[in-house]
Each structure stands twice: as C-alpha cells, then as structure tokens.
Design goal:
Strand content: 25-35%
Distance between the termini: 20 Å
Largest sheet: 6 strands, antiparallel
Strand order of the largest sheet: 3-2-1-6-5-4
Number of helices: 10
Shape: elongated
Number of strands: 12
Helix content: 25-40%
Length: 294
C-alpha cells in the first residue's frame, strides 16, 4: 500500500480471498488514506458468489472502474459514504503462476464522476498491481514455508514420544502455537461409536475435557457432522450459521462450556484421514478463534 501512497494516490485498500466450503469470501486486510483504513476496512467482508464490486472484480481480468461508489449498486453505499469515497479502480491480484486469485486491490482516484480517467493513470495502476501481486505472492509463499518448516520440526520430535496420544498432544499444541490459534483433536474410539478428545489448547479444550471428553456419533455438533459427512467446515459466525445452531442450543445448557463457546467467533473442523483414503477417517481436528476470520 505504501507503493500506492508514494505514487500519489489519495487512498486504497487490499482485500484477500478466504476459502470456505462451500463458499468463498473476500475480506479487507488493510487500507490507507482518507477513511479507507478507519471506515472501509472494517465494513468489508463479502461472499464471492454475489454481485458486490469485489466479487465482480475477482471475475474480471481487466481493471474495474467505479465512478461513483456512493450510488453504484455493486458497492456498499453505506461504507462509501462513511469513508467519503467516490471513484476508484478495482484490480484483481493473482498468484505468481496466475492460477488463482489472491485478492483485490482498490485504488482511490479522487472524484471522476464528470471526468474520464486518463490512460496513463490506468497504466500506472496496472503496473503497480503487478508489483503488489508479486510482493503478496512471495510473502504468502514465505509464510507457508515457515509454517511447513515448523511443522516438520514438530513431527521429528513426535517420533521420540512413547505413546500415540503423547505424540498427538505434542504435535497439536506446537502446531496451534505456530498458527496462533486454539483448538483440539478428537479421534474415533476403538468401537467406532464416538469421538474421544485426545489433545488441545485453550479454554474450550480445558472445559470440554471435563464436560465433553467423549462425544457419541449421534451428537448434533458440527464436528460429528463433519466426521460423518467427510466434508470440512469453516464457521465464521456461529451465532448466525445454521450449521452451528443445533450444537450451540445443546451446549448452552452446560453452564461453563456454554460460556466458553459463546466467546468463540470462528471455528473450523477438518477430517483426519489415513493417507489419501476418503473412507479411512480417524478423527477431526478443530480450530477456534475469539475473532472473526473474515
């Protein structure tokens, strides 16, 4: 974003694509200039399947020019008014191989309601977009390599553990710390009728170890549904996501665990499989956050 600022543009914002099955979302990460950072960023979280300007930009190979964000039906007019934004250019950002979209760059170009955007300015925005694409792609690759290295080192130390449960606990607590989140692991019991809590970190794990250490496969939780269905799930807002309602209503009755659950704003469940087999399911790994992920 400093590149845009040095180039003389009054403001701008970068939003990144977040993958969630079955939907994808795009969420603003940072902004500069005017009220982009203080007003627009916090109001920008969109589903990519809609007609929002960010979703529109993701589907377009060429820059999208918005002349009046305060009246354009593709824009969040409330956010545009709050941020004092009129005209901007939205440009999708691709990964280094140009196989998938990383996000969208928005560049404030002032007020172009009655004036055309000159070709030189548009060419400059395209060029800056390419530079930002490369920097963003390299930064994400570096972060992924750092995480992969940390997990590899954890795996090596797990080989020295005496029991499987000890190894799982060591690996997961280290992985959660690396990822900066809380969570837990449940494995299928030998009789195949329940999921047993074997490792974790954070308030939910601590209390669930007392109140929900073993969960039968007849339970209404998202974790059980994910295990039985074999499809991973990301819940960004448990208060409104219908997939989380039956479980939350059930756990609300558990005083202490209910309090902990209310504090979580996002969580994700991923099936643990044996190798590449879709049928050999071993359990579920879950992550939780006190803040919304997107």
């Amino acid at each position: 974003l400093r590149i845009l600022e040095h180039a003389g543009f009054p403001g701008g914002m970068i939003s990144l694509v977040f993958k969630e099955k079955p939907d994808d979302w795009i969420r603003a990460i940072d902004g500069f200039g005017g009220k982009w950072k203080t007003e627009i960023v916090k109001r920008t979280s969109r589903a990519l399947q809609g007609n929002d300007i960010l979703a529109h930009a993701v589907r377009q190979p060429d820059p999208v020019i918005v002349r009046d964000a305060q009246t354009d039906p593709r824009c969040n007019t409330e956010a545009a008014v709050a941020g004092g934004v009129r005209s901007f250019v939205a440009l999708r950002l691709m990964d280094e191989t140009h196989r998938y979209v990383l996000g969208v760059l928005q560049v404030d170009v002032g007020d172009k309601r009655r004036r055309r955007l000159n070709p030189e300015t548009l060419t400059l925005i395209r060029t800056l977009g390419l530079i930002i694409e490369l920097l963003l792609s390299r930064a994400l690759q570096a972060e992924e390599l750092a995480v992969t290295h940390s997990l590899d080192e954890l795996f090596k130390t797990c080989l020295e553990m005496k029991t499987i449960d000890e190894a799982i606990h060591h690996f997961f607590t280290g992985a959660a710390k690396t990822l900066g989140t809380d969570g837990h692991v449940r494995l299928l019991t030998p009789d195949g009728r329940a999921l047993r809590l074997v490792a974790g970190t954070g308030p939910y794990y601590k209390q669930a170890s007392i109140e929900r250490a073993v969960v039968p496969l007849t339970d209404s939780s998202v974790t059980v549904e994910v295990f039985k269905g074999g499809l991973d799930a990301v819940i960004n807002n448990p208060d409104v996501d219908v997939r989380a309602r039956p479980f939350r209503q059930q756990v609300w009755e558990l005083a202490l665990l209910g309090q902990v659950l209310r504090a979580n704003k996002s969580f994700a469940d991923y099936v643990i499989r044996l190798g590449d087999s879709a049928d050999e399911k071993l359990g579920v790994v879950s992550f939780a956050s006190l803040e919304s992920w997107f």
